[in-house]
Amino acid sequence: MNHWVELDKRYFMDTGHRRLGVTLVRGEGARVWDEVGKEYLDFIAGWAACSLGHCHPVIVEALREQSERLILASLDVYTTPQIELAELLTSASGLAKVFFCNSGAEANEGAVKLARKYGKLHLNGAYEVISALKSFHGRTLAMVAATGKPEYQAPFTPLPEGFSHVPFNDVAALRAAVGERTCAILLEPIQGEGGVNVPTENYLKEVRDLCDERGLLLILDEVQTGCGRTGTLWAHEVSGIKPDIMTVGKGLGGGIPIAALLANDRAACFGPGDHGSTFGGNPLCCAVATAVFRFIVKEDLSGSAVRVGSYFRERLLGLQEEWDIVKEVRGRGLLLAIEFTKPVALAMAKACCERGLLLSPIPPQTIRFMPPLIISPQDVDQAIVILDAAIAQIK
């Protein structure tokens, strides 16, 4: 056990398992290095947050420039980076209003608050939100209640009321669950933490139709899927629909903590004093997010996610043909997963880590790939070689 691991175990609350066991000290592009200088190809990317990789010049320069001007101001005043980012995101999303916060969980909390106020104003006080089993919407108490994973909920009962769950990709179950107290449906366009579960082609359109029929709000959690990761700026675009409320985060800041809650004019019913955040929308993070988002658009990283993601998927399918233990390859763009026939996800991730590849296991049987959007086919080739060797060892 090295010095840093000893200090971590002494001082840090035991909220995470540090499953890969490495201590990182430096990053550049799609690669990181540990305290003894070992290099790793990073296909976790801060759980999809490092959209431009590590220490990208666009991010470093934006941090430097803005930190010399203004880092934080209260919401009692206007700041230009916040307004610039608001204009950029509303234009790119087709939604009307935005609120900035610090994390995806906070954005989803805000979305539920907004939906509940909408229910009070327009739906006779309806307040319940329906979400999907195997979903993930954050770690706050209310978002644990919204998340469709009983194992995350059990230690914290009683949970806040007002949430119910149905199977993902099942419109009939949603229809059956909608009642007089329902104000909104909350979904990920593709479930990330749940195992990279991609719905059928018409699912989101049918959910949109259901919300329109019953006067409900459709909330789409694009915290992991947004900002180009799945091959379009927003994952829901392939369905030809628009949400009433959308949450974004992770890749928006390229590794800097920022998230956003966006809503159309119908849903944007917050008034003065209804919501707030001390650090939300601070000039420093907004300036970085503006630089990151503009770079994603200018360099067509959505298109790169399609091209490199398609190549990555083909290589993974090659592994499926080679190894019986690979049960399924799924995902879209640069949010991909492989599922094994045995509960070997954690062992596979550790074996890959030993060989210089960082992957995110979803035990017991799935590994998720969320590399930076700037990876190359050569990076994919390197990852496949390592993964192939790990499978040969573990199978």
TrEMBL record:
Cofactor remark from the record: Binds 1 pyridoxal phosphate per subunit.
Family matches, as InterPro entries: AcOrn/SuccOrn_fam (IPR004636), Aminotrans_3 (IPR005814), Aminotrans_3_PPA_site (IPR049704), Class-III_PLP-dep_AT (IPR050103), PyrdxlP-dep_Trfase (IPR015424), PyrdxlP-dep_Trfase_major (IPR015421), PyrdxlP-dep_Trfase_small (IPR015422)
Localisation: Cytoplasm
Membrane keyword on record: no
Record pathway: Amino-acid biosynthesis; L-arginine biosynthesis; N(2)-acetyl-L-ornithine from L-glutamate: step 4/4
EC number in record: 2.6.1.11
Pfam families the record matches: Aminotran_3 (PF00202)
Gene3D superfamilies: Aspartate Aminotransferase, domain 1, Type I PLP-dependent aspartate aminotransferase-like (Major domain)
Miscellaneous note of the record: May also have succinyldiaminopimelate aminotransferase activity, thus carrying out the corresponding step in lysine biosynthesis.
Protein name listed in UniProt: Acetylornithine aminotransferase
Organism in which the protein naturally occurs: Candidatus Methylomirabilis limnetica
